């Protein structure tokens, strides 16, 4: 599941990079929303490096995942940071597609989706979104605890 999400983020960043796509807009927000020309100029100088960085972070997840159904993942501090950034990007992208906002009650949304159709893609997508949040929280807790030792 995590492999598929990381591959989709890499695909989004490498194939058909569309600035009108709300996910691209969220991952690469305008620095100067009220000044489109200045924002475009800033993007011209920074977007390539930011895009490469995001692809590398998703690649870090793909590279450290064991084969399906086997093993565990062990991360050094640098890989853990890359994972945390990549998980954040994946969760942001999925949240845009699912129309998640700060006011969204995820448990309620998931319960409603299950009531409507337990086998719907939305149930799966909301579950993945929730799982990515769990992974982020767990990884952040591990990084923080490790930093205190």
UniProtKB/TrEMBL annotation:
It comes from the Bacteria. It holds the Pfam family DUF2017. This is DUF2017 domain-containing protein.
